């Protein structure tokens, strides 16, 4: 029995993971810290402040800046990110996602969002998807970020469903860990070598097929 699908946002519903990457890369380079896509994988699903700490740590510069300076860096990254997402429209919904949401709805299954981003609601609204979600849990509503399961457990609780009857969809290693920690079936989109702890992995969102996911969940 499946009660709910709980989706991550950035990199699953829309390609904002790329914008987070570009904005962090610009800041890191300004601070003379090397930044590449492999390192960026560690930042996916991770909060704004924790991401900044990981970047500074990578450059051995954690002690070089005051808390006030760190806040300024985080704000600068966010201002850049916000300019990058300004143009987002329903056309930016990743391939296959609309179809998957429609199939889930047709079966009367609930849909939740579990995003670590403070910009989640604004992105969903730009995509025209606000009404498709029965509940939205974002960074403001949980104490512990991914890989802690709290955000997925909170979404299940708000939907009044058993986590064991939920399917989580993620593109981040930390997110897959959070889904598994919540006792849910984990579907991952992306690189199998990074997301190998998921129960089912696809390379891109257009491969997310409702019937296939349901079949694998039942066999699980
Ligand atoms: C998501 C993204 C992360 C991002 C985090 C916080 O989890 O995957 O890359 O750092 O949200 O986003 P925010 O918009 O609050 O800075
Ligand atoms: Mg993501």
Question: Can you put this structure into words, describing what you see?
Answer:
- With 220 residues, this protein is an alpha/beta fold.
- The protein contains 9 helices and 6 strands, in the order E-H-H-H-H-H-E-H-E-H-E-H-E-E-H.
- It has helices at residues 16-30, 37-40, 48-58, 67-85, 97-106, 120-127, 150-158, 173-181, 210-219; strands at 4-7, 110-114, 135-137, 166-170, 185-189, 200-202.
- Strands 3-2-1-4-5-6 form a 6-stranded parallel beta sheet, with helices on both faces.
- Helix 1 crosses helix 4 (67-85).
- The longest helix is centred in the middle third of the chain and has 19 residues, at 67-85.
- The protein starts with a strand and ends with a helix.
- Magnesium ion (MG) binds at residues 8, 10-12, 17, 44-45, 171-172, 175.
Q: Segments where pLDDT lies below 50 for 5+ residues?
A: none
Helix content: 40-55%
Shape: globular
Order of helices and strands: EHHHHHEHEHEHEEH
Strand count, sense and closure of the main sheet? 6 strands, parallel
* Overall mean pLDDT: 97
> What count of helical segments does DSSP give?
9
Class by SSE composition: alpha/beta
Strand fraction equals 5-15%
Q: Strand tally, please?
A: 6
Radius of gyration: 17 Å
Identify every distinct bound molecule in the structure, by name, code or SMILES.
Answer: 6-O-phosphono-alpha-D-glucopyranose, magnesium ion
Distance between the termini: 12 Å
Order of the strands making up the biggest sheet: 3-2-1-4-5-6
């Amino acid at each position: 029995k499946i009660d709910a699908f709980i989706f991550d946002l950035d990199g699953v519903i829309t390609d904002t993971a790329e914008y987070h990457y570009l904005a962090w890369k610009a800041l890191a380079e300004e601070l003379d810290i090397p930044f590449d896509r492999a390192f960026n994988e560690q930042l996916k699903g991770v909060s704004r402040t924790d991401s900044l700490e990981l970047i500074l740590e990578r450059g051995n510069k954690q002690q070089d800046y005051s808390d006030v300076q760190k806040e300024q860096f985080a704000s600068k990254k966010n201002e850049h990110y916000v300019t990058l997402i300004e143009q987002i429209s329903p056309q930016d919904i990743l391939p296959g996602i609309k179809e998957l949401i429609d199939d889930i709805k047709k079966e009367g299954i609930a849909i939740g969002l579990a995003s670590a981003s403070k910009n989640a609601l604004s992105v969903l609204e730009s995509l025209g998807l606000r009404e498709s979600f029965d509940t939205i849990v974002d960074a403001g509503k949980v104490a512990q970020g991914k890989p802690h399961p709290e955000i997925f457990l909170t979404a299940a609780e708000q939907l009044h469903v058993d986590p064991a009857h939920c399917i989580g969809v993620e593109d981040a290693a930390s997110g897959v860990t959070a889904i598994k920690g919540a006792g849910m079936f984990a579907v991952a989109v992306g690189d199998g070598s990074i997301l190998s702890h998921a129960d089912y992995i696809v390379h891109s969102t257009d491969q997310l097929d409702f019937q296939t996911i349901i079949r694998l969940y039942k066999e699980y």
